[in-house]
Amino acid sequence: MQATKAPSRANGSMVAPQVARELRRQDDEGSSPTPWVVTMRIVKWIPLLLAGLLAACAQQPARDSSGSKAHHAIDYAQYVKGTVPWFHFSSLYSWDSNQPGYVVVWTSPVQAYRLALVGPCLGLQRTGLIGLTSQAGEVSSTRDSVIASGDHCRIMRIERLDARAIRAANAEPKASDGKED
Q1: How many Å apart are CA 11 and CA 47, to the nearest integer?
Q2: Of 50, 56, 101, 168, whose CB is crowded by the most CB atoms within 10 A?
Q3: Within 10 A of 86 (CB to CB), how many other CB atoms are there?
Q4: CA–CA separation, 60 vs 130, rounded Å?
Q5: Would the CA dihedral through 136, 140, 145, 147 be positive or negative?
Q6: CA–CA separation, 131 vs 100, rounded Å?
Q7: Is residue 153 a contact partner of residue 117, using CB atoms and an 8 Å limit?
Q8: What pTM was computed for the model?
Q9: Within 10 A of 102 (CB to CB), how many other CB atoms are there?
Q10: Beta-bridge partner residues of 117
């Protein structure tokens, strides 16, 4: 049996064909791979692992169960300011759904949209987390979806809401409750 020779390096790193030859040689001989080859096998999985980690850590706020009762009493349809074809999206501040075919997303404390879905999205009633698909930082009514409990619910229409009026309506019952005590 021959002594294992260290793989040759060009400019301080191994060239891809040399790595492939080294792996084939080790497989043919039945010898264990060198530490450098083991490291290279692990390193090639890092981008995939990072992509999976990024997807798992996507900004999806948990549903606030303490404030959800106040949101469910709101008829969001009365706060619609108009229909828009898309909106800028970088993070999801909050969300609510009081009907299976609609979801209200807050992209900031003062910016909200009501998303009309193609059909009922039953995943919205089962989850505390949602996601939105987007292309180049924009959510579009023609190509994007709401993701809830594994369901991909296609967006049919995007309606801009009067977020300040909704916040004011949410604050009123709390103020009247404080006056009665």
Answers
A1: 24
A2: 101
A3: 18
A4: 6
A5: positive
A6: 16
A7: yes
A8: 0.58
A9: 21
A10: 155
